[in-house]
Amino acid sequence: MSKQQLNTPDVDGIMDARQLGTPKMVILGAQHMFAMFGATVLVPLITGLDVSTTLLFAGLCTLLFHFISKGKVPIFLGSSFAFLAGYAAIAPGGEMSLLRYASFGVVFAGMVYLIVSGLIKVYGASKVMRFFPPIVTGPIVISIGLILSSIAIENSIGAYSNGNWWLAIIAIVVVIVCNIWAKGMMKIIPIIIGIIASYAVAAVTGAVDWTMVKEASWVGLPIKWDYTVFSIFSGGNVDTGLLLTAVITITPIALATIVEHVGDMSAISSSVGKNYIKDPGLHRTMLGDGLASIVAALFGAPANTTYSENVGVLNLTKVYDPRVIRIGACFAMFFAFSPKLGAVIYTIPVETMGGVSLILYGMIAAVGVRNVVEHQVDFKKSRNVIIAAIILVLSIGVHYSAAGAIAFNVGGTTIGLSGLATGALVGIIMNAILPGKDYKFDDD
Question: Cβ neighbours of residue 331 under 8 Å, at least 6 residues apart?
Answer without folding.
Answer: 29, 30, 33, 59
